[in-house]
Structure formats: C-alpha cells, structure tokens
Design goal:
The chain is mainly beta. It has one domain: SH3 type barrels (Roll). The protein contains no helices and six strands. It has strands spanning 12-15, 20-30, 35-42, 55-59, 63-66, 70-72.
C-alpha cells in the first residue's frame, strides 16, 4: 500500500468492524527501512483505551487499507481491559 505521507494526516481511523478509533496526528517513521512504522492517533475513542494522555501509537502493520479513512485490524482485546464484573451474591 503506497501513499504520500502527507495524505494520511487528519484521516479518521476505524477498525474493520466499524468502530471509531481516532484521528491521525502524526506518523512514526523508520529511517533505516524508509517506511512508516506507526500512526500517532489523537482524539481517541475513550471507550477503547484506558489512558489519560492525548493519544496512542498504533503499529502500522495493523493498517488494512487507507483512502478517505484508515481501516485497522480489530484489536479490541489489546486496547481497553474490561472492568472486573462484580460477583452476584447468592441468597
């Protein structure tokens, strides 16, 4: 998948299941291999991530497609850990 780097800035990122992840703020480049190694994503979906910062870095290998939006593999189990569910008390 080839694209000009500048075309990726500001694109919305979604999972392949249609869940909004965030918006591309910057890219992480690997100068030794002359390729993109990650996406710096801001305005993140707080329902997906347990973080207090402004964004996250997603590995570029997760990207499935890019165009008007970026689609990444569904990796929900890697994002937010579910809160422990309270156990029911038996009567």
């Amino acid at each position: 998948m080839r694209a000009e780097v500048s075309t990726l800035f500001g694109l919305n990122v979604y999972t392949d299941k249609g869940v909004y992840v965030g918006k591309v703020n910057d890219l992480v480049l690997d100068p030794n291999e002359s390729k993109i190694s990650g996406l710096a994503v801001g305005k993140i979906n707080q329902e997906l991530f347990n973080i207090t910062g402004k964004g996250v870095i997603l590995p570029y290998r997760w990207v499935i497609a890019s165009g008007d939006i970026i689609i990444i593999k569904q990796m929900a189990h890697r994002f937010k850990k579910e809160a422990a569910k309270p156990e029911k008390e038996s009567d």
